[in-house]
Amino acid sequence: MTRRLVLLTLLIMLLASACGRRNQANPVTVVLFDLTASTAAGSIRGQYLRDFGKILEGLTAGGTLAVDIIDDNPLAHSSFPIMASFSRYDPLTENRLGYDRRIKAQREAVARQAQMIVTARPSRRQGTSVMDALQLAERAFASYEGSPRVLVLFSDMIEQSGRYDFAREALTPARINQIVERERAAKHVPDLRDVEVCVVGAGAARSGGISPDRFLAIQAFWIEYFKAAGAHLPKERYGSALLKCP
Asked: Which residues contact 193 (CB under 8 A, 6 or more apart)?
């Protein structure tokens, strides 16, 4: 009788644990680091690392992290140098102290990898293709099921590619709409439905930053672009430093 009671108790615990896991969030976080020459200043890269640390500390158990870069040709240069999954604590297979030590070591290893990426010497190749890099985010979100889905862009968000140059474009509301519709017609707008977007480093530049008018025009463009992609980028999550994400 005692043995049956013990087995029944264990079965109930396993079922409860399985149900709990099904109901828990399994966040997927994608991070893109802009490593072009326009973001090469030590102060900008230092801000990247400080705010990435906040993102890393906020990753919950059961979450997945994918990291890649933004450069002049991110589709060709993509390698997803950081891919990490943070398992949940299972009291049936591991003690709590051991689990905490393992997760801490994993976070520290990811932080070291990020530091190596961010502090690497910038390429001499000219150009920044934020739009193409967003195709990498689409791939990552399509590969890993889970929610919430969060995209963090560490970038000045100044598109300077073969298609557009936001350092010179007059991004009026009409021009913004024209670009978004052109990208949509060309099927270049990624599928980022239900993704929460955060931008860190917007407006930053090696020579003191861009003008307020251009900052606001570029911000307006990306808000509309992400809306077209099905994502959510509110103004309060677009800036030079991270306040809250999401």
From this structure: 229, 230, 231
Structure tokens at 246: 């999401």
pLDDT tens for residues 71-89?
999 999 999 999 999 999 9
CA 130 to the chain's CA centroid: 13
Rounding to the nearest 10 degrees, give the CA dihedral for residues 88, 93, 98, 102: -50
CA–CA dist 24, 147 (Å, integer): 9
> Distance between alpha carbon 120 and the CA centroid of its chain, in Å?
19
Of residues 195, 196, 194, 204, the one with CA closest to residue 244: 196
**Inter-axis angle of helices 42-58 and 96-118, nearest 10:** 160
CA 25 to each of CA 15, 160, 179: distance values in angstroms, whole numbers, following the listed order: 18, 37, 36
CA distances, 131 to each of 84, 126, 157, 190 (Å) = 24, 15, 9, 9
What is the spatial order of strands in the sheet that 82-85 belongs to? 82-85, 64-70, 28-34, 149-154, 195-200, 238-239
Which of the two residues, 54 and 205, has the higher pLDDT score? 54
Cβ neighbours around 105 below 10 Å, total = 10
